[in-house]
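Dear support,

I submitted the protein below through the web form. The confirmation email said the job was done, but the results page showed an empty box. After a refresh the structure appeared. I'm attaching both so you can tell me whether what I see now is the final result or a partial one.
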Amino acid sequence: MGAFLSGGIDSSTIVCLMAQAMNRPVKTFSIGFDDPSYNETQYARIVAQRFGTDHHELIIKPDVVNLVQHLVGFLSEPLADVSVFPTYLVSQLARRNVTVVLSGDGGDELFAGYEWYVADKIARYYQKLPGALRHRWIPLLMNCIPPSSQKKGAVNKLKRFVEGSALPASLRHFRWSTFMTEEKKSQLYSEELRGSAGGLDTCSRFVAYLDAVKEADPLWRAQFADIKTYLVDNILAKVDRMSMANSLEARTPFLDYRVVEFAAGVPSHLKLNGFQSKYLLKRCMAGKLPKEILHRKKEGFSIPIKNWLKKELRPLMEDVLSEQRIKREGLFNAPYIEKLKADHLKGAANNSHQLWPLIVFECWRDKYLH
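What the results page shows now:
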């Protein structure tokens, strides 16, 4: 048995507890990138050194783009999470050494680790700004700032925050936790698809989960919706498929029913204290985890997809999203997709989170529907 180790507080907590319970070094596995702004292996090494683990790591290079169509073969339906790459490769690395791994998945949903939980609090202060500033000048400023090539550029996060803050409370969280507005999604569809699908409202299911716990406080409502959607349909689906593709069993201690029931009963101010996320978990692990881990900024398990689309992934993108092909299939808006590609390639916008789902869908379509 081993553990995935990203160097975040969740996986580090699992490794800490494993080290206490086991009478031999824990086998840990990490993935990094040759792009420094995406590489976080230094944090995993800090934890590995602290607990004396048998640590293994792999640095991903852009040539893994050849895996795209291979990985699509493990998906029963399109899954546009770019972290399928590192998840598959870290599972492959782990399987050379163990048959079972523990992961830290579920910690963010149970103990309020996502940035969008903090965004809801910030929005309460943001709403006090003059309306002209919020609705006109700040959005105008956001649109004038070019995208960054760095991971999780602040510009993209600020744009999502500003857009979300202008929405009704029931829709804000959905906007902050997704990459595309309903308007942008609609622009992707052809007129034929919009007409036959009758609206394609993608947020109604999410809002239904918020409404299912109307009497709860805002933080738990958001957590509940994330558990029922993002955790189940994205995180766990991705980890299960990519680990089992390597005959590796991944288990999630945070999702033991006793931990889930405990977390559900924890008051919100002990999860999100002021603007400090995972307050209770950090207090519990203080003195056990290195300070660099306890207080590091939240990072996701991501890849340099916006850069790869301009280089290594460009031939695949140009092939499966060619104007001729898109027009022939009749599902998507070919002129709009051409503009998305052009703007992304010249650096005028970061459209990776609109282009990548389309690429995955087309590869999946080639695999299963042709």
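Response: this is the final, complete result; the empty box was a page-load delay. Residues 305-368 form one domain.
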